[in-house]
Amino acid sequence: MDAPTPPPGPATYLDDLLTQLHRAGDRAVLRADPTGTSGRDGDGRDTTGADLLAAVRRTARALAALGIGRGDLVALLAPNRPDALAVRYAAHLVGAGAVYLSAPPAEADRARLVRSLAPRLLVVWPQTARLLPGGTGVPVAAVGPVPGVALRLDELSAAQPATPLPSRARPADLAVVVSSGGTTGVPKGSRRDFARYTAMVAGPARPERRQLANGKLAYLTQVLVDQTLLGGGTVVLRDGFDAGDTLAAVEAERITDLFLVEPQLLELADHADLPRHDLRSLRAVTHVGADAAPVLRRRARARLGPVLAHTYGASEIGIVSALPPAEYDQPARLGSAGRVRPGVEVRFRRSDGSLDARTGAVEVRSPAMAQGYRTAEQGLTARFADGWYRTGDLGGLDDEGVLRVLGHVDDVLRLGGVAPVDLQEALCRLPAVRYAVALPGPHPGTGLAAVEPWPGERVDADACRAAVAAAVDRTVAGTLQVLPVERMPVTEQGKPDRAALLEHAGAHAPA
Is 329 within 8 Å of 301 (Cβ atoms)? Predict the structure, then answer.
């Protein structure tokens, strides 16, 4: 097999990735649904480095034949499949940017998202065809048979040679648009050029790493996939998160690295099958998203062992701070987001607009920070100011450089200065409560506590308010609407679904 052609200019992450795939040769770098439980074509198949490299080259030539090149954006409504990764890397090989589309529930929101991103081409798979919105005016190509889509990118690619192809990507070209969670409406897309994205995915060589990728590629899962392949490791692809399936996959595939959001972490730790699985291969179970209360972190660590890690960041800024397994259960660290990463700067802004060295609204600057949003919608561009990103979170830094995040500034203000995580801590200490989410209520001056009980238990609203009054704040307790939920609703990203909770609370508000 021929080695990749050296780039004519400064290298990007893609040049390193193609080199790694060439070196991997006949070694499997991807595994797709290895237990074969989903019933889809291709389950259980390994993709070697040589396979993926050939697919990237063929697909790149097909995209070039369609006129895709530098400055263009290719959008993907993609499942977690090797050919989805090949399309993305192929777009980069011809110098185009790529975006894995998130999928808001409403078709109108999906159409608005596509129109706002303005891609040159939208690629869809049979597994995601139901999510394809109409009326966007964007050309569509399919990988596999999709009714109503005549252009078959897979067939066009299969007719192309797999010989080396020079990368057309340049450091200043648009590389990726990464979706936000969309908890406040249509998801935002933060953009990075190849130089910024190369910094975002840089990391040490870890050929022993076996990363389970069961989150949506639209979010930070794509970064984990790239980091693993760049480090010489192996990625196991699953279509989504299921706690039982995740436990089985960890054991069967000797998974070393797992990435979860808070509700998923608790689902895994509380699963009845946990004791029956061999999880000794795990080296790091990293959770992100909502700020899990210390009582929940202790429970998860007691059940999963000394492998838990926590990171704080966002799609716009990458990882800001990290709490590694070695420090996770230290009393002074347990409720924190860990130490700020090298090369990342954090500062704080007071409510009067002045800066503070220790506490306030968190602002971040880092080499991996996005360069803005794909579209300049009203109110969004202000998040990026003077080279800094305003996270909208409230936090502080202690004398040892450990970051603590209290929650969204607006949430804390609307809850009378009380951090939602403190309400969660009080509620989850109750014996009947398995999980709880706290946020401002649907009416001014009120709070909302969505509470999920343990199986066989029931939520006692008075006991919940009493616990909050005793441990946190009597005023907040007096306005707190307690909303029992059989199962906490979550977004596509796996985070607590605030919109669904507020809607549910409005329908069940006391008369």
Answer: yes
